[in-house]
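Incident log, support desk, overnight shift.

02:14 A customer reports that sequence design results differ from what the structure should imply. Their input is reproduced verbatim below. On-call engineer (initials T.W.) acknowledged and began investigating.
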């Protein structure tokens, strides 16, 4: 939804604090001998985020009524401060990730997994803000992300739903190839 500058940018204060606190709390609850396995739970959370990012963007932001309208507003006005308010994303992460993960895997690994997901989310909002608002040097990874996201804005439902990586678009064959799209349009 359309946010005030304060509610848009406050994510960049709240999320680093949330990630740090969760990481610290989880580590304090984990014996040093288990830190290696704990790190794997964080990595699993981060990897799960990339999958969630793709699926949420493809199916929720582009199809669910009401949410779709808000996402369309971002497609139409890319520089507008449109996003998910922090209170909502925090509740969703707490209810859909933290609680079930702690229930299934215990506090230490459940909080580690949630920290990984939350790091992924922070990276996602940062990259998505960056590709629309920052000047990015050509030849960098971030420039590639900017280019593929610009193609998503142009071709919309056709693909490039991943924002922080193109991995899942390759897996689900929604990677946009501009030359193929041009050929398809000319037929
Ligand atoms: Zn965008
Ligand atoms: Zn989109």
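02:41 Re-run completed on a clean worker. Output:
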């Amino acid at each position: 939804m359309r946010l005030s500058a304060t509610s848009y940018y406050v994510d960049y204060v709240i999320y680093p604090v949330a990630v740090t606190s969760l990481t610290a709390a989880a580590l304090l609850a984990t014996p040093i001998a288990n830190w290696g396995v704990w790190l794997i739970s964080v990595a699993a959370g981060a990897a799960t985020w990339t999958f969630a990012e793709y699926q949420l963007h493809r199916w929720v932001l582009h199809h669910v009524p009401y949410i779709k309208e808000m996402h369309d507003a971002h497609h139409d006005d890319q520089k507008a401060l449109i996003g998910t308010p922090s209170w909502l994303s925090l509740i969703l992460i707490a209810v859909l990730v933290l609680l079930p993960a702690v229930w299934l895997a215990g506090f230490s690994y459940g909080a580690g997994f949630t920290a990984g997901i939350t790091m992924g989310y922070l990276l996602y909002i940062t990259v998505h803000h960056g590709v629309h608002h920052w000047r990015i040097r050509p030849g960098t990874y971030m420039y590639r992300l900017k280019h593929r996201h610009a193609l998503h804005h142009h071709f919309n439902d056709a693909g490039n739903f991943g924002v922080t990586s193109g991995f899942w678009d390759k897996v689900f064959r929604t990677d946009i190839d501009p030359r193929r799209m041009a050929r398809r349009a000319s037929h």
